[in-house]
Amino acid sequence: MEPQYSAADLTERKRRRIRLARLEADIAYFQARLEMIGEPTSANQLTQRKAFELLLKTVSTKVAKVQRERAV
Q1: What is the signed CA dihedral for 57, 58, 62, 64, rounded to 10 degrees?
Q2: Contact between 55 and 47 (Cβ < 8 Å)
């Protein structure tokens, strides 16, 4: 038998799914940018690469957190 969810629970679950989808889209974007940069040939590219690596790591951590919350 499936548990019954209130309207507030369903709204919160929807928000979490949307948040997770947005975070996953951000990860895909950061990975694509890193691929496009490749091996940096200028100081600007090196800075961009470092920034996107940091963003990727941060967002990946958030995705893991959201996934853990969904499991609860």
Answers
A1: 20
A2: no
